[in-house]
Design brief:
binds glutathione; alpha+beta; Glutathione S-transferase Yfyf (Class Pi), Chain A, domain 2
């Protein structure tokens, strides 16, 4: 569970569920989808990453990495999307998005999704689509360097600062990691409807945003028919519409 003590104390007075999130952020998508699966009321604090609304003292005081999503639940601040969805499923077990006998396996899918974010998903999405759209001005870059203390994120963002762009090696490495992960998902799914078999779970919610953004960047899933079939089933859920597609009607045009 990733609970942090915010330096921006204003959020400590919040009651209920408040979500700081970005429309096209895959990490935000999984939290919105979980909230919708459970039919929970939540207060939206939208952060436009293209307008750099995350790069200021106020937001870094809530999320010390300056990332979305951040969930504030009755004044307690939760970061890390996969931890947040696990927390929500525990705090609001109706409907339960896990099965008791496969919990450890399901949490492994969440861990894999989390571990791929910086080495694979983020570089792929930035290199293929986002880097030019979130280019920082000199002032924004200076503010980012002042606020950001996380070395991994500093290193990642330095790769597209100023005139720099991601190298072919960066893209190849992310493609290699994605291919390994998708091969594992393809085999594990087999003919089953959901990642954990018969039960729709947090594993599906964790992975569908990855599929959404990677497809939106032009990734070819023709090698993975089980993943395509699974994704089509997830996309029929109301929670997918409310948590994902309603927030980014056309990712291809982003
Ligand atoms: N491990 C974090 C990653 C969050 C993350 O990287 N969020 C992206 C959007 S998906 C973001 O805020 N990007 C802005 C930035 O990198 O400055 C989580 O799962 O919540």
């Amino acid at each position: 569970m990733a609970i942090i003590e915010p330096t921006n104390k204003t959020v400590k007075d919040f009651e209920g569920l408040h979500l700081y999130h970005g429309n096209i952020s895959n990490c935000s998508m999984r939290v919105r989808m979980t909230l919708e699966e459970k039919g929970l009321e939540w207060v939206s604090h939208h952060i436009d990453l293209k307008k750099k609304e995350n790069i200021n003292d106020e937001y870094f005081g809530i999320n010390p990495n300056g990332l979305v999503p951040t969930l504030v639940h009755d004044g307690v601040v939760h970061i890390e999307s996969n931890d947040i969805i696990d927390y929500l499923d525990t705090a609001y077990p109706e409907p339960l998005l896990r099965s008791a006998d496969k919990e450890a396996e399901m949490l492994d899918w969440l861990k894999l999704s989390a571990s791929l974010h910086v080495p694979a998903i983020k570089p792929y999405v930035y290199a293929k689509k986002m880097a030019p759209k979130v280019k920082k001005s000199q002032e924004e870059q200076a503010k980012y360097e002042e606020l950001q203390k996380n070395e991994e994120l500093k290193k990642f963002h330095s790769k597209h600062a100023g005139q720099k762009t991601f190298s072919d090696d960066d893209v190849r490495e992310s493609e290699r990691l994605l291919a390994d992960a998708f091969a594992k998902l393809e085999t594990s799914l087999g003919d089953a409807p959901w990642i954990m078999g018969e039960q729709f779970s947090l594993a599906d919610i964790s992975w569908i945003p990855i599929y959404f953004v990677i497809v939106g960047c032009g990734y070819d899933f023709s090698l993975y028919p089980n993943i395509k079939r699974w994704a089509a089933s997830v996309q029929e859920r109301d929670s997918y519409r409310k948590g994902i597609s309603d927030w980014c009607e056309d990712f291809a045009k982003v």
